[in-house]
Specification:
Amidase signature (AS) enzymes, 8-stranded mixed sheet
Length: 491
């Protein structure tokens, strides 16, 4: 029955609706693979009881029998990232302090995916509070990379990316503050899309005005699946006043199924590389991304090396201020929990670092950081007069050993914070741009994937998806490669 799990989510949806395969069969196959592989890869946590899930699958089959469908995800097993609230499931944020914190209502994306027919089977693993692009925490442990279980899966949507790559889920949701959809997608050879801020509303939470650097979004093994999930997740919600309307329609998705390369003809790509040496990047990464760009050129794209044209260190200082502002309240909430007793050792050290540095933030500093973002956004608009998309590596390092917390140096250059090695991801976030991670290739000697991120114009998700679909159409041999299931899995 595991052949079912090799289908794309789009094919799975069609076959479920044609009743060529039952929702029960899909659930049995999914739970069987999870039972066999998840104890080793540790991608899915807080899995619901099998009988409860099978009862839901039987209910979905009965709905189809009488001609009723809930939507594209009807009967699909789905695990939601453990930063997002799903009614009846713990929302732990990867923290020991929240192990028993059961959500009473669904967040926006969970509600929308449920409305489209998915069956929530559990949660996907994430680092504590989603901090750091390495999925490990003291509550559930580390998630292993789908291709090489000895190295990091990335993060913070690492559990989602591994579940996708190992066929534990047909599609996956994630969230992205500092590359958390893009980095794990790149390191696990799947697609990840960070939408423009507001396209996929996050929450609702305690703040609906300032917390706009992070966003939820889709991950998938194919571009059509990515677009289908985005179309379900996206759209305005009155409770979140800065949310946007959905700009991905079914006609676009249907068109991508044609699998042609027309969107690459004449496409102007600005290749930012390592920002003229500003970014420390491990050997081989630029070569792999360059090879991906050569595929673009082979289909008529115009790839031109270009400069960012904005002081990168100024952007980094603006980033630090914004991140501390938005992370500190989450850390403070943990420290104030009765079960914490203000015992700082129960909170991740990197989270405490953010909290402590936030205590000296001033309103002047924050306003200046906002002005930097504003100038940078306007500068990006000038770059998009010359280019249709901007390209960067999705990560500055190859996947690193599972037991390592974070890279302290790259090529002999010291990393002065726990996230400096992820600096390549901040430009889309600060600019409020959509960014899509494409599988670019592999390390020359190891089974380590790497991704290329494409930054699109403001509100340019639909165009990025068209470009990605064209890339997919001419990269079949690369994209058809899948990881092996580790022989130790389940032992």
């Amino acid at each position: 029955m595991e052949e079912i799990l090799q289908w794309s989510a789009s094919e799975l949806s069609v076959r479920i609706h044609r009743r060529e395969v039952s929702c029960v069969e899909v659930m049995v196959a999914t739970l069987g693979r999870i039972e066999r592989l998840n104890p080793y890869f540790n991608a899915i946590v807080n899995l619901a009881p099998a009988e409860v899930l099978l009862d839901q699958a039987r209910g979905r089959d009965e709905e189809l029998r009488i001609g009723e469908s809930r939507g594209w995800m009807h009967g699909m097993p789905q695990a939601i990232k453990d930063l997002a609230a799903v009614s009846g499931f713990p929302t732990t944020l990867g923290s020991r302090l929240l192990r028993s914190s059961v959500a009473q209502q669904d967040c926006v994306i969970a509600a929308r995916m449920k409305s489209a027919g998915c069956i929530v089977i559990g949660k996907t693993n994430t680092p504590e509070l989603g901090l750091g692009s390495h999925t490990f925490n003291a509550l559930f442990g580390a998630t292993r990379n789908a291709w090489d279980p000895s190295v990091s899966a990335g993060g913070s949507s690492g559990g989602a990316a591994v579940a996708l790559a190992q066929r534990l889920l047909p599609v996956a949701d994630g969230s992205d503050f500092m590359g958390s959809l893009r980095n794990p997608a790149g390191w696990n050879h799947v697609f990840g899309l960070r939408p423009r801020q507001g396209r996929v509303p996050s929450g609702p939470g305690n703040d609906v005005w300032l917390s706009q650097l992070g966003t939820d979004g889709p991950m998938a093994r194919t571009v059509a699946d990515l677009a289908q999930l985005l179309a379900i997740q996206a759209g305005y919600d009155a409770r979140l006043p800065l949310s946007l309307a959905n700009n991905v329609d079914r006609e676009l998705i249907t068109g991508m199924l044609a699998q042609d390369t027309a969107a690459l003809h004449g496409l102007r790509v600005g290749w930012l590389g390592n920002l003229d040496g500003y970014l420390a990047i491990e050997d081989g990464i630029l070569d792999v991304c360059g090879a991906a760009l050569e595929r673009f050129e082979s289909c008529g794209a115009l790839v031109q090396p270009t400069q960012l044209g904005f002081d990168a260190e100024t952007l980094w200082q603006s980033w630090l201020a914004w991140r501390r502002l938005l992370v500190a309240p989450r850390v403070a909430a943990l420290l104030e929990l009765p079960q914490c007793g203000r015992d700082r050792q129960l909170v991740k050290a990197e989270a405490l670092w953010e909290f402590d540095h936030a205590q000296s933030l001033s309103a002047t500093t924050l306003f200046e950081a906002s002005q930097v973002r504003t100038r940078f956004y306007h500068h990006l608009l000038s770059l998009f007069e010359q280019f249709d998309v901007l390209a960067l590596p999705v990560a500055q390092v190859w996947p690193f050993p599972l037991e390592q917390r974070w890279p302290t140096q790259i090529g002999g250059r010291a990393m002065d914070t726990y996230h400096r090695w992820m600096e390549v991801t901040i430009y889309a976030t600060l600019g409020g741009l959509p960014a899509l991670s494409l599988p670019a290739g592999f390390h020359p000697e190891r089974a380590w994937p790497m991704g290329l991120q494409l930054l699109g114009r403001p509100q340019g998700e639909a165009h990025l998806l068209r470009v990605a679909a064209a890339y997919e159409a001419m990269s079949g041999s690369l994209l058809s490669q899948g990881p092996s299931a580790a022989p130790e899995a389940g032992t």
